[in-house]
Amino acid sequence: MRHAPTTPELVRRILKGERVSLARGISWVENEAPGAAALLDACFRKSGRARRLGITGPPGAGKSTLATRLAQEYRRRGHRVGIVAVDPTSPFSGGALLGDRVRMGELAGDEGVYIRSMATRGGTGGLAVHTAQVCDVLDAAGFSRLLIETVGVGQSELEVAETADTTVVVLVPESGDGVQAMKAGLMEIGDLFVINKADREGAERASFAVRSALELRERKGRNDGWQPSVLLTAASQGLGVAELADGLESHLAFLEERGALEVGRRRRLERRVSELVQGGLWAGFRAAIPEETWRETLDGVHARTLTPRQAAERLAELSRSASSNGVRSRREVPVRADLPDARSRPARSRVARH
Ligand SMILES: Nc1nc2c(ncn2[C@@H]2O[C@H](COP(=O)(O)OP(=O)(O)OP(=O)(O)O)[C@@H](O)[C@H]2O)c(=O)[nH]1
Ligand SMILES: [Mg+2]
To answer: Residues with Cβ < 8 Å from 176, sequence gap 6 or more?
Structure first.
């Protein structure tokens, strides 16, 4: 493929599962290239069959190793497997990508596995939306199990994990001591828990600590009837991996039987639409405000002559009139003249509505 293909051509090749086209299509999505929207629309219509499995946990817990082993296990069960390794910490996919390539090297040459590393990008949707979009492309291309690996250390990572149908939290024996102090978010998103590196000391104790923490979670009323299991694995030796695949499949079956898979998917789609709307509105809003106005307004807030609420209202008003007058009049919008002087108002009413 020397020349750039047209979007319909590329979509056709992706749906046939052509790897070079898949790589190109995913790059379009990541870079928000001109053809990406049409490509995503076409792929989205063909998606919905794959099961999306989140694999998250602290750095170095063995997520990539486990994903590699899990992919092999799913291959034995007749699935085609996509792995999306998300690295939110680096703006370039340098080190992490290289590391994963080495670790996931065992999968090289298998046409039934596709591995992609993603790094943080700005853009309209944010990382979670991009990840979901890449999964749509892989889903449309016929990969039936998608493993989404992300380091569970911050909000955006939790959001990525939440794009999955089911989520595994990978811990290590040493995590046991810190479970009570562990980020509540990580404990709450897990449908299954894995103590990896069970070839080391303390795996049983860690497993017990996680179970106790999960009982607390249940008492807080977060239980949906599913009892998260806690499994032991030694991913580097492939131990416990078949049991993990069984556990994942049980959870998917549990969700399906109760209609909860579709309820969850609907909720996630709603979130995706909301994020896109918010991103689009923000982009339009920001583009309508000249840089100078933006700066002056923030100066006003900093000097406390404007409250944040007043600033936001004024900017929104300016943005609205700029877009209704069109680009032509953007510079003509009287930036300062039409702003009532905040200082002339009594201080109390300025803050009263916060
Ligand atoms: N002893 C032992 N080491 C393991 C096991 N699984 C993985 N490792 C090692 O742990 C290190 C980290 O493994 P990765 O799979 O890269 O972990 P990760 O969670 O993907 O790491 P990041 O993506 O960097 O957060 C590697 O050196 C692995 O070989 C295991 O079951 N036992
Ligand atoms: Mg990794």
So the answer is: 195, 202, 205, 206, 207, 208, 209, 210
